[in-house]
Design brief:
2 helices; about 65% helix
Length: about 50
């Protein structure tokens, strides 16, 4: 039987996926940074980190 799994071996495609993941992580960090400014929101900061 032939192996029909798709292999991503093109370096430009791998870099594109890595960049998209990095941008998503940066976008998701914004609410955490915002809630760190307010001491009364420490619980929400903890929840966002989890």
């Amino acid at each position: 039987m032939s192996n029909t799994r798709l292999k991503i071996t093109d370096p430009s495609r791998i870099l594109t996926v890595a960049n998209m993941i990095s941008l998503l992580r940066a976008f998701l960090a914004l609410p955490i940074i915002y809630t760190l400014q307010y001491p009364q929101w420490r619980l929400w900061t903890f929840v966002l980190i989890l």
